[in-house]
Specification:
single chain, mainly beta, Porin, 13-stranded antiparallel sheet, 2 helices
């Protein structure tokens, strides 16, 4: 009886040993959500994917308000027939008016300034049919128009910093300006165009300075040049300068590869328009914008090819490593397979200042 029991135990051990030899390679191919045993060599992404993972692309569209501002203290201004003109002298010393001086200035000698009233701040007249000359007062022409900007940016991201380049295309509306502080019976300035296009090309740099839950906060700066529609702003009349843009984007992180971007920003730029008299007028064209778009990074690992694989985190299959989620979902919750919140990875304020 004892020998039979010994034989049964020996036979069972042999079967289990042989089964382990033949079954273990098969089991190695079965999905293991926690990866291979700890003593296996860690599987890493290839070099090209590591480099590409530092790059991201951002595309966005939004709304902008362009603010124009001119200092016209060096000119007398004539207001009449619902139009504004700058008063100057031609080469023969005759008094002439300059109209449409924002982009395509022209000269007219049909103004009758002798019948115009010199505007004084103390007078109470409000006759729309009269002509006025504004002489000694501070003369600031201000106003605005609307814009629809679309931009594309490419960033190289390293730790909390990023650098890159981009291009922005804007559709701008008619400009309507008025003399600041003067009453309604002084005419407004309206541009001769209904719309124009702006193209901007620039370098950009930024820093990721704060995190709160799934939101990341950045400060970005752009520096580059811009071009206006040549049909509206002829190059012979109008010259442009380089421009600056300062923005404070807020990003909602859907995953480490996919983010919703909300980008408020301000453009600081100007143009110079050459007058027929040889002088030039500087126009500040500051632009306040708010754009919404997405930023996508190149994934470090391919998506798992097993359709029924339920792993949410990065994981191994044999000798390969994959991400578990689509590019627009968070990859590593680490709090159960289907937990909606990444509670173990809460955002911290200024984590780079935290003592380690």
């Amino acid at each position: 009886m004892g020998r039979n029991l010994f034989n049964i135990k020996s036979f069972t051990i042999i079967i289990l040993f042989l089964g382990g030899i033949f079954i273990s390679p098969v089991m190695g191919q079965v999905f293991n959500p926690w990866g291979p045993p700890p003593n296996d060599v860690d599987i890493d992404a290839n070099f090209l994917r590591k480099i590409a993972n530092h790059f991201s692309a951002e595309v966005a569209i939004g709304y902008g308000s362009t603010r124009y501002r001119q200092n016209l203290d060096d000119y007398q201004i004539y207001s009449g027939n619902s139009n504004l003109y700058l008063l100057a002298e031609d080469s023969l010393g005759n008094s002439v008016g300059i109209g449409n001086w924002l982009n395509k200035p022209f000269v007219t000698d049909t103004l009758n300034t002798s019948s115009a009233v010199y505007y004084q701040t103390s007078q109470n007249e409000s006759d729309q049919n009269r002509s006025y000359v504004i002489d000694s007062l501070e003369k600031r022409l201000v106003g605005g128009g609307n814009a629809i900007p679309i931009h594309l940016k490419i960033h190289f991201n390293y730790n909390r910093f990023r650098v890159g380049a981009g291009a922005t295309f804007e559709i701008n509306s008619k400009a309507k300006l008025n003399l600041k502080g003067l009453p309604d019976f002084i005419s407004d300035y309206e541009s001769d165009f209904s719309r124009f296009f702006t193209r901007k090309y620039y370098l950009t740099a930024g820093v990721h300075y704060y995190d709160f839950w799934d939101f990341s906060y950045f400060a970005d700066v752009e520096y580059g040049n811009f071009k206006l529609s040549s049909s509206v702003f002829p190059g012979g009349n109008v010259s442009t300068s380089n421009y600056w843009n300062l923005s404070f984007p807020i990003e909602k992180n859907f995953s480490e590869y996919f983010r919703l971007v909300m980008r408020p920003s301000v453009d600081l730029k100007s143009i110079n328009t050459l007058m027929p008299t040889g002088q030039s007028i500087n126009t500040k064209m500051w632009n306040l914008q708010f754009q919404v778009g997405v930023r996508i990074s190149f994934p470090l690992f391919k998506k798992c090819p097993i359709s029924n694989c339920e792993a949410q985190k990065e994981h191994h299959h044999i000798d390969k490593k994959y991400r578990g989620q689509p590019i627009y979902k968070w990859q590593n919750p680490k709090v159960g397979e289907n937990h909606p919140y990444n509670l173990n990875e809460k955002r911290e304020a200024f984590p780079f200042l935290k003592r380690k």
